[in-house]
Amino acid sequence: MVQRATRGSGNLNDQMMEKVSDAGNGMYALISSTDQADNYAQNRLLSTLVHVAKDMKIQVEFNPAQVAAYRLLGYEDRAIADMSFRNDAVDGGEVGAGHRMTALYELVPAGQPLALKPGQPAILDGALSTAVAEVAASDMVKVKVRWKGLDATDATPASEVSASLAPEHCSNGIAVADPDLRWAAGVAAFAEMLKKSPFADPTFLPEIDAVVAAQAARDGDRTEFAQLYQVARTLLPPLRRDAASATARRGRQVVARAVRRSIACTTSTPTAAVGQRHAKNGPLAAPGPPRTTSVRRGRLRCERTHARRSSR
Questions:
Q1: Same domain, yes or no, for 269 and 244?
Q2: Do 211 and 107 share a structural domain?
Q3: pLDDT (tens digit per residue) in 187-223
Q4: Dihedral of the CA atoms 88, 91, 93, 95 (nearest 10)?
């Protein structure tokens, strides 16, 4: 394996950097201060130079009896064909030492109305799959991960592990979640507002304020985000009094508005979770057959549920 570390300055082009890093199975980072440079060298450089696995893919399968629709926030450029999940000839992503990523899904439980607000894209049903459902009838979702060791050849079979989550282990509110999930949900909700997503809901700003204030001192990254958050928040229009009252009535949920239940899959490797049918910034989708995702970098997105899997 040939590894090369380079640096550049000026003329930031995120799309170009992503294409270059994808083509070379690498990673890139933006460093805008000496503090960030020190932090990157001490805490993140090793994960970009030392890989622990390759050709990683993730597949997420929702149970349509439990989930009416879902939305995966980002990773829309990481989807691969559902049936390619166990095809080891299809390239996956490389995993750096100590690398972690979180994928957030917004779910509509079965039996809940799938009402859309003005401006939101139509709900996607997607094509039905002939794949055999693997999620158990008693579970809400099953997550599968495949990868190869660094010394594996094309003929070496990939390893695979899976885990399932039952409905009783899910909560209707974010308040009972651990601090990391609350932070991730708050940051994602704020990002939706900044990019003017049709699913963004500014009435959640008071909840996001509370999450950011409570965790700003946990580490350097969160301290820096809290500072940037205070600046970026001024770019949003002020929250109307009636909207603030509506927020109080709805309770303490820092999740997307149309979804009644939120679930996050966190891995100890740079993986992108998979959602069954996807549409950029788009509609909720119905669960059904799998979709597969390779693991490099990306953003997150959305769909409805039959018995699908999503792969990356």
A1: yes
A2: yes
A3: 999 999 998 999 998 988 999 999 999 999 998 889 9
A4: 50
